[in-house]
Structure to design on (237 residues):
């Protein structure tokens, strides 16, 4: 699955870039708008273990930098390419029977989504809704855990190992992300943004061969984000 998924990400990335740039050659109004700024928000994550592990959504945070290049207005749709460099907290929090028994793993990532941004609404001085979708790459820069009174872990796993005994073995992460947002802009070029996004991980955090405890162990993340961007280049309308 890893090689196929990685090839898919590469091809999909090229498709997203080509789609955003190629509309420049189609019927529409050309744009060369560049906006940059910061983003931050709230993260809810779980890891899709197979065999399964009982979990609650694990809360965390994300923050980073955003750059958005708008290249075309095609009828009523504003077409843009958006790139980000973010710090984000993933991992999992296990669901147990008593408050004394707790286990939580926080995995720290630098993430780089590359997104197609398709907007509908006021271009400047108003409200615009938009869709974002594209590939996301990440790299684990560290991990930490909170372990209360250790409770019994499933011993049917290979060699009696559990998710508690494993450190992140695959630091490079890739997957698909997408979501919906709203951009409130001013005529002077300031953008106030709220967005919801979902990330589906295609890579595993642990080794997943037949001899390993898990055949599947990937991050799935819900993001609730706000951002502030300001125009540094605007097309004259």
């Amino acid at each position: 699955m890893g090689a196929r998924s990685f090839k898919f990400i590469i091809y999909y990335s090229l498709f997203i870039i080509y789609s955003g740039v190629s509309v420049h050659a189609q019927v529409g109004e050309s744009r060369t708008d560049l906006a940059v700024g910061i983003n931050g928000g709230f993260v809810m994550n779980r890891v899709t273990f197979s065999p399964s592990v009982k979990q609650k959504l694990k809360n965390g945070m994300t923050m980073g930098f955003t750059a958005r290049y708008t290249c075309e207005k095609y009828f009523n749709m504003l077409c843009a390419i958006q790139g980000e460099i973010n710090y984000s907290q993933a991992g999992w929090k296990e669901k147990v029977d008593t408050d004394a028994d707790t286990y939580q793993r926080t995995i720290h990532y630098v993430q780089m989504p590359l997104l197609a941004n398709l907007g509908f609404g006021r271009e400047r001085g108003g409200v615009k809704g938009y869709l974002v979708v594209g590939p996301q790459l990440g790299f684990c820069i560290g991990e930490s855990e909170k372990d209360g009174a250790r409770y019994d872990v499933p011993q049917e796993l290979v060699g009696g190992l559990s998710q508690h005994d494993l450190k992140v073995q695959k630091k490079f992460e890739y997957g698909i992300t997408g979501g919906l947002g709203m951009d409130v802009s001013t005529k002077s070029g300031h953008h106030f943004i709220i967005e919801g996004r979902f990330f589906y991980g295609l890579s595993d955090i642990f080794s997943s061969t037949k001899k390993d405890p898990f055949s599947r162990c990937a991050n799935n993340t819900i993001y609730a984000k706000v951002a502030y961007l300001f125009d540094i280049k605007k097309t004259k309308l």
Notes: The two ends are 48 Å apart (CA to CA).
